[in-house]
């Protein structure tokens, strides 16, 4: 017993001494003496370390007396190493020198705006994304950025998701990954479900609102998302991230990095799996993805290979919930067939080079290839055989022209090409010139199969009841220049030429023979200026033009004698950006004037398919405010507000009339109506509170005003305004056995708001009573989002 007491007392004394020592200090940029936030500081070989806070300060606690080697590192800076003895009598002041290694930022430089570029943008860095990243898609993670409205088909942020920026949908938002275009060449859309957990491999995102400076793809018609994937890390690491939550949501992620090997090579890999039952009935998702990257990082040259892939299976929740069921059955899904699923895989390959050619010239080039393939499966009760090119089936004396059918509709496509840019900077840094371009080809096959019939017809399982192919070539060349005309005054010009050749041939999914060959040649100029006052303020103004070709359906569904016109956008941006101490904000005005914008009007083509029509004149105009203020060490407040008007000068609506003796469409002309899905007010606010070290509590608020689901500004076809509130808790600590241990709890919609950010509508006349002998029927369908729900995660970094 005496020995046991002695050992226990000895251990307690040791623990007391162990807990009395710590290393404190600050870490700064040696050139500018600015604090470096998020720098890593470790005691080599002990597993103990810290990360610098918002003031660039750090502390490593509970260190037993002895001699140690301390290592400090930060991306883009040379590592710092020193030997020291604990206990220390004073705080450390560490200054890191900028790295001589070429950074990866130039991979996205040509498609991005800088602080001197006269356009409106928002930067979202890795730490902002990580705080919310528990498996939901990128549109949901970006929900609190300015002018954004995000939504989810399944209602919980996993599966099919989307976003709108200033009312512009995903087909009008250009997305690049490391400067390489991501939008689908035919539909112009981005399907985030094909990139599950991609946020875990993102270093930062620049969101440009308006035409911006993006130089790739067709969809730069409202906004751009320029994504840069993970940069190398100097230290080897491992990370395991697991989360779970409502609707049986599960996310598992493993990430590994080699660190910088021989000061030149680095390799990283991620493997993710996400599953959920979804808020909507049966709207499950089973998502898998990986990201592998490796590269050579020299003093003047970087060569990097990225390979990433996503494979998804989701139960279809595309139909929405009928308005009549919103109050009684918000999770309604009309589909009941077990395999009513969407199945798709997309593989991406990127080979990127960045180099310093000399003291004035930099170069960037990228080769890319994307292979996508998959199908969605549907059960079709009592479908017409003629829809599949099949003759009626004769059984005995009975003629069968309808039967139950299960079909699959396939996409099999290849997208490949290259992008490049050269950057010239004069010795006095007054002239900055960029020359670049891209050449891309899309080769797509669309086809359909019948895999089962209630009554077997004259078809085999792999026969294609429709089959068509498309080729699209897209070439762009551009030149940009920024010149310092006088002290603080910068002039900007950006001239882009874009050429598109698009052809398709075959049998469409409605059994029509289609054939088309179209060419477009666009010139897209941008001009502007910025002025730096010298006290942290930058004033800017710009004028930009964008032209955009119609999407695939506009061509295939159009009347033979009425080919849709291309769309044109003229965009004016003017504002001020400020960074003063604890306060930062952006205030700007925008005006976006559209000519020949393509919108759904309800009009039918010659075979009864709904088509889009060019609207001669429409516009968006508004004011955006975005800012953050650090009240104290414990409180930070951030908010954004968009107030806008979004109008079509004249809109012609076509309504199907089934009450007439013969089918016809009634034509109604509307003037000065709101553009569909364009709320006049969008606002968000985030309050961060840090009551103790390593604990952050955040309140996230979002308000979206009324949205109309078509262009008639009819109150009976409207999405009501909504106000949601979320709470997020992040707590991190550094135990002895790992570099970092982090816990996150996210409670969404804490006030259980019943809201629908997305939907669709259609109207028609049926026979009815009264003088007209008919009645107007409007059917609205909505995509309800989940009430109060949660996600919780644990992240371990080794």
TrEMBL record:
Locations listed in the record: Cell outer membrane
UniProt entry tagged with the keyword Phosphoprotein: no
Topology class, membrane: Multi-pass membrane protein
UniProt keyword annotations, A-Z: Cell outer membrane, Ion transport, Iron, Iron transport, Membrane, Signal, TonB box, Transmembrane, Transmembrane beta strand, Transport
PROSITE patterns per the UniProt record, alphabetical: TONB_DEPENDENT_REC_3
Main location (coarse class): membrane
One Pfam family cited in the UniProt record for this chain: TonB_dep_Rec_b-barrel
InterPro entries membership: Beta-barrel_TonB, Beta-barrel_TonB_sf, CarboxyPept-like_regulatory, Plug_dom, Plug_dom_sf, TonB-dep_rcpt-like
UniProt GO cellular component terms: cell outer membrane
Keyword Iron: yes
TonB-dependent receptor plug domain ranges (all copies): 116-222
GO MF annotation list: siderophore uptake transmembrane transporter activity
Domain TonB-dependent receptor-like beta-barrel positions: 329-750
Family: Belongs to the TonB-dependent receptor family.
Protein name, UniProt field: Iron complex outermembrane recepter protein
Species this protein is from: Aquiflexum balticum DSM 16537
């Amino acid at each position: 017993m005496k020995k046991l007491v002695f050992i226990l007392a000895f251990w307690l004394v040791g623990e007391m001494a162990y807990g009395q020592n710590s290393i404190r200090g600050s870490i700064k940029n040696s050139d500018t003496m600015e604090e470096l936030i998020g720098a890593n500081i470790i005691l080599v070989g002990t597993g103990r370390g810290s990360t610098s806070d918002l003031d660039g300060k750090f502390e490593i606690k509970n260190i037993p007396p002895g001699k140690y080697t301390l290592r400090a590192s930060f991306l883009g800076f040379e590592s710092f190493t020193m030997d020291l003895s604990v206990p220390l009598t004073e705080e450390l002041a560490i200054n890191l020198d900028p790295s001589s290694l070429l950074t990866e930022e130039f991979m996205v430089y040509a498609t991005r705006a800088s602080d001197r570029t006269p356009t409106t943008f928002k930067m979202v860095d890795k730490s902002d994304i990580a705080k919310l990243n528990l498996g939901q898609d990128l549109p949901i993670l970006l929900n609190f950025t300015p002018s954004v409205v995000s939504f989810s088909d399944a209602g919980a942020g996993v599966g099919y998701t989307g976003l709108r920026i200033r009312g512009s949908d995903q087909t009008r938002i250009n997305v690049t990954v490391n400067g390489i275009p991501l939008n689908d060449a035919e539909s112009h859309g981005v399907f985030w479900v094909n990139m599950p957990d991609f946020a875990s491999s993102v270093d930062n995102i620049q969101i440009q609102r308006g035409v911006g400076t993006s130089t790739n793809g067709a969809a730069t018609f409202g906004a751009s998302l320029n994504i840069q994937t993970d940069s190398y890390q100097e230290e080897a690491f491992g990370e395991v991230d697991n989360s779970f939550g409502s609707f049986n949501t599960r996310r598992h992620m493993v990430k590994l990095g080699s660190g910088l090997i021989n000061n030149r090579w680095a390799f990283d890999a991620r493997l993710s799996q996400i599953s959920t039952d979804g808020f909507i009935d049966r709207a499950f998702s089973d998502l898998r993805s990986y990201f592998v990257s490796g590269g050579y990082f020299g003093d003047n040259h970087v060569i990097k290979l990225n390979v990433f892939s996503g494979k998804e299976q989701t139960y279809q929740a595309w139909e929405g919930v009928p308005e009549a069921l919103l109050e009684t059955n918000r999770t309604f899904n009309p589909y009941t067939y077990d395999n009513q699923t969407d199945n798709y895989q997309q593989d991406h390959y990127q080979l990127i080079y960045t180099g310093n050619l000399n003291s004035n010239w930099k170069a960037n080039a990228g080769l890319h290839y994307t292979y996508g393939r998959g199908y969605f499966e549907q059960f079709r009760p009592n479908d017409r055989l003629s829809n599949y090119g099949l003759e009626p089936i004769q059984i005995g004396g009975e003629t069968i022209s309808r039967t139950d059918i299960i079909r699959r509709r396939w996409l099999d496509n290849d997208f490949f090409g290259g992008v490049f840019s050269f950057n010239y900077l004069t010795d006095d840094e007054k002239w900055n010139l960029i020359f670049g371009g891209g050449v891309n080809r899309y080769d797509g096959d669309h086809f359909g199969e019948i895999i089962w019939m209630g009554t077997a017809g004259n078809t085999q399982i792999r026969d294609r009841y429709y089959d068509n192919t498309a080729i699209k070539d897209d070439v762009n060349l551009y030149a940009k220049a920024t010149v310092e005309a006088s002290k603080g005054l910068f002039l900007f010009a950006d001239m882009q030429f874009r050429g598109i050749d698009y052809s398709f041939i075959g049998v469409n999914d409605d059994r029509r023979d289609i054939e088309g060959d179209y060419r477009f040649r666009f010139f897209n100029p941008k001009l502007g200026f910025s002025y730096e006052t010298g006290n942290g303020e930058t004033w800017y103004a710009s004028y930009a033009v964008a032209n955009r070709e119609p999407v695939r359906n506009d061509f295939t569904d159009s009347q033979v004698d009425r080919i849709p016109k291309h769309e044109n956008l003229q965009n004016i941006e003017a504002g001020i950006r400020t960074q003063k101490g604890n306060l930062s904000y952006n205030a700007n005005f925008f005006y976006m004037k559209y000519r020949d914008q393509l919108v759904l009007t309800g009009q039918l083509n010659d075979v009864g398919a709904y088509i889009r029509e060019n609207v001669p004149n429409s516009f968006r105009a508004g004011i955006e405010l975005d800012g953050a203020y650090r009240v104290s060490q414990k409180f930070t407040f951030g908010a954004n507000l968009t107030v806008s008007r979004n109008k079509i000068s004249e809109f012609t609506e076509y309504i199907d009339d089934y009450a007439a003796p013969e089918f016809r469409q009634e034509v109604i002309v509307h003037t000065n109506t709101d553009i569909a899905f364009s709320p006049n007010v969008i606002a968000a606010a985030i309050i961060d509170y840090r009551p103790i070290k390593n604990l952050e509590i955040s309140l996230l608020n979002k308000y979206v005003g009324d949205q109309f689901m078509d262009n008639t500004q009819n109150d009976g076809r409207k999405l009501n305004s909504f106000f949601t509130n979320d709470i997020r808790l992040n707590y991190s600590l550094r135990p002895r056995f790992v570099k970092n241990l982090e816990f996150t709890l996210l409670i969404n919609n804490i006030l259980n708001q019943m809201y629908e950010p997305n939907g669709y509508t259609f109207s028609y006349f049926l026979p009815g009573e009264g003088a007209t002998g008919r009645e107007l029927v409007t059917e609205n369908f909505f995509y309800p989002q989940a009430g109060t729900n949660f996600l919780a995660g644990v992240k371990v970094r080794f």
